[in-house]
Amino acid sequence: MPVKSTVPLMVNMAGMIPIIFAQSIMTFPTILASFFNNSEITWLRNFAVTIQTTLSGEGVLYPILFFLMVVLFTFFYTDILFAQQNYGDNLKKQGAQVPGIARGGPTQRYLTKVQRRITLPGALFLGIVAALPFFLGLFLPAGLQQTQVFLVSSSGLLIVVGVVRDTFQNIESDLKLHGYDDRLIS
Asked: For the chain, which residues make up each domain, given as ranges?
């Protein structure tokens, strides 16, 4: 009799890494432009000021670019992580297969397609959570525009949820290891 099992596909396999990548890349031109603020060449000084004002997080362009970069980096990082798992060959070595899909390469391609479809809502949600503080800063009154506080709280919320999820998984696995009944855990 065949044993049924599951393949762990996650909605957000990349975690916070896409936000960190996007923030780093979006900050780099601003830092580079700050070196030319006091330039004697007028066009260079104006260009540096334009870069700094555009990518400072105050305008509408920054949150849109930030959102797009977070979504793209989520797909990029997830593809890299998923390719390293090499589920197709690992399932083939274990004698397992996805029903209706040939073993090896076709299984890997199928699971990659499924993972990309699962990643889409996760990437969009991560992009929204990452860019939301900047959009809120555009609509809040001047006294309440504390974008950095919102940014820390939105990223912090994602970290807290991840830590709580991992803690529950560790507790559940320890309880199963010590022989507790599954009915008592759930």
From this structure: 17-180
Contact in structure between 92 and 104 (CB atoms under 8 Å): yes
Please give the model's pTM, rounded to 2 decimal places: 0.76
Query: According to the CATH classification, is domain 17-180 in 1.10.1040.10?
Result: no
Structure tokens at 50: 């334009």
CB within 8 A of 4, min separation 6: which ones? Answer: none
- Please report, as a single letter, which amino acid is at residue 80: I
Distance of CA 116 to the CA centre of its chain: 13
pLDDT digit of tens for each residue in the chain (186 aa)? 566 677 777 888 888 889 889 888 988 888 888 888 888 888 888 888 888 888 776 667 888 898 999 999 999 999 998 888 887 787 788 777 788 888 888 888 888 898 899 999 999 998 988 888 777 776 766 655 555 555 556 677 777 777 888 898 888 888 878 777 666 555
Among the listed residues 125, 149, 155, 126, the one whose alpha carbon sits nearest the alpha carbon of residue 136: 149
Residues 6 or more apart whose CB falls under 8 angstroms from that of 125 comprise 12
Residue 45 · residue 97 · CB < 8 Å: no
Q: How far apart are CA 112 and CA 116, in angstroms?
A: 6
